[in-house]
Amino acid sequence: MIEPPGPRAKEIIYRDGNVMSSCMSRPYPLVIDRARGATITDVEGKTYIDFVAGIAVMNVGHSNPEVSAAVTAQMEKMAHCAFTDFFADPPVRLAEKLTQLTGYDRLFLCNSGTESVEAAIKLAMWKLDRQSLIGFYGAFHGRTLGSLSLTCSSVKHKEHFPTIRVVHAHYGYCYRCPLHLKYPGCGIECARQIETLIFKKEISPKDIAAIVVEPILGEGGYIVPPPEFHQEIRRICDDNDILMVADEVQTGCYRTGTFMAMENFGVRADIVCMAKALGGGLPLGATLASSSIMDWPPGTHSNTFGGNLLASAASLAALQFMEREDIGTRAKQLGDYVMLRLREMQSKYPAIGDVRGLGLMIGIEIVKPEGSIDPDTRGRIVVEGFKEGIVLLPCGDSAIRFSPPLVITKAEADTGMDRFEEALKKSVC
Ligand SMILES: Cc1ncc(COP(=O)(O)O)c(C=O)c1O
């Protein structure tokens, strides 16, 4: 870790080191004090352009006044009501809004992405009375033991921990095709192998409850598969009576332009997991399905905080804000612009091997001159970015993600891109 930028940051990081669990890893010493829109101010008073949005959470922008007002008003009435034991209006209004936005007519509320995935796993297993799943190499679905079993982005997450049975298949990662084929002539062999290889040699489809897939790989490298990839998975699920689960935890809430990223691929999953941006900054997750699937009896699944009144109020305000401001169109337009700027840089700096994305979910892959992954240079760029005044995070083996608040202005995006180019120059020259 580089030297903290000032005495206040240094002191807080020191105290953090004395009391916080050592399991977290931070890439650079950013100590945040406050944030507004798409800018973050650290405890030394320095302001940064935010390309992380609290890991794709703050789609409505930091300190969104409408979300603040809704949370404050709810706090004055009541914060928590044990919604899974009693009834209340705010979570029901939230559920009604979500069913209107998605077309799914049932949902279960929880507090995080991993819990929304756990609920999806349990629902699929309960519905089909089967205990195994198909996941994908590079996927990230969370760190509780069920979702961790699906997660396959780094062995570090899984070492020493038990898992449920998941067979992993290849994701549609065309830039580095795991099968060394070329799209579109490949016939989407990566997805087809679920049927032609896995179901023939490894596990019977009769034992599979669900295929769980991210519309775009998030932690695994911001990888956008070709549209036929998800269409092929849908077909395999239909032909084999398996449920398709879309993990929209990172891609959801207009990040890619549409409310759910699967809409970009013309595919409708049977069960959808959402969290992150759904809470407008408060912890909230949801698992959505049709009532013909989500018909498990009372007692099958529940929790304490699901339907928390503050989280429900924040979420409703965030959803209303995003819908009214047509934030999806904005994400598409600004996303196209940011990708254009990154492609211009790619033509000048061969270290940028690939630029990919949908809406404001954009990744670049940093490569060595011969094209292999270059995690060291990627790490240097991220740290130089911090020094230049932008907040970045790595993802995948060698990628950097750009997932700013969707309210970022074009001027802020330009400033951020200028600073990114400076960081790039200093890291690769
Ligand atoms: C696609 C996806 N699913 C699930 C999760 C887990 O979410 P949480 O950290 O809220 O448990 C993440 C977190 O990054 C994610 O990106």
Short description:
The protein is α/β, with parallel strands linked by helices and 429 residues long. It has twelve helices and 15 strands.
List the helices and strands and how they pair.
Layout: H1 7-19, E1 32-36, E2 39-42, E3 47-50, H2 53-56, H3 65-77, H4 89-102, E4 106-110, H5 113-128, E5 132-136, H6 145-150, E6 166-169, H7 189-202, E7 208-213, H8 227-239, E8 243-247, E9 271-274, E10 285-289, H9 309-324, H10 327-348, E11 352-358, E12 361-366, H11 375-388, E13 390-391, E14 393-395, E15 399-402, H12 410-428
Parallel strand pairs: 3-13, 5-6, 5-7, 7-8, 8-9
Antiparallel strand pairs: 1-2, 2-3, 4-10, 9-10, 11-12, 12-15, 14-15
Helix pairs in contact: 3-9, 4-9, 7-8, 10-12, 11-12
The protein binds pyridoxal-5'-phosphate.
Residues 55, 112-114, 117, 140-142, 214, 218-219, 247, 249-250, 275 line the site of pyridoxal-5'-phosphate.
